[in-house]
Amino acid sequence: MNSKERMARAMRHELPDRAPVMCQLALGHYFLNVDLPPHRIWFTSEGFAQALLDLRARYHFDGVLVNLPGRDPDWQRAVASINETAQGEVITWRNGDRTHLPYDDNPQHASAEAARARPSFEAFDPDADADHLGEWTAYIWGCIIHHTCRAWRPVRCANRPPTSTAPSTW
């Protein structure tokens, strides 16, 4: 029985020859084990799909788990530069923000505007800040919500002092 037949039987609640095997791997594993630059895996649907398929073939999985669906196809219009460092890639956006894509971990975004910077873990106050989570720059499904999604509308945090900045090692 091949993978397609095995998955089809399992989805129909029929008995396959064995349990289908799929695995949701860490993005760092994709970055380290697929021959694509991290920004292509994180920001393009084609790169992410290729990473899923390459690792499915490598590990003989029966299917893939799409855990980060869809990417903005026009994300590159917001890019000023993409540079490679020893620690990963750094995207500098036209608005001055920077995103560090480590070779072994999820991207880390730093806003150029202090008002959009997320508070540090130590400074975050759940009682005071929980209602403002949507106001800070964040990733949603591979999309930086304030400037790479189609709305292109900056998100600002009202009256909040800066509490986090990009590490100097970027």
SSE topology string: HHHHEEEEHEE
Biggest sheet layout: 4 strands, antiparallel
What structural class results from the helix and strand content? alpha+beta
How many domains is the backbone divided into?
Answer: 2
Query: Helicity range of the residues?
Result: 10-25%
**Tertiary shape:** globular
N→C terminal distance = 49 Å
Our estimate of the beta-strand percent is 5-15%
- Ranges where pLDDT stays below 50 over 5 or more residues in a row are 140-168
Give me the number of helical elements.
Answer: 5
Taking Cα atoms only, what radius of gyration do you get, to the nearest Å? Answer: 19 Å
What's the total number of strands?
Answer: 6
Instruction: Report the average pLDDT across residues.
Output: 79
Strand order of the largest sheet: 1-2-3-4
The quaternary state of the protein chains shown equals single chain
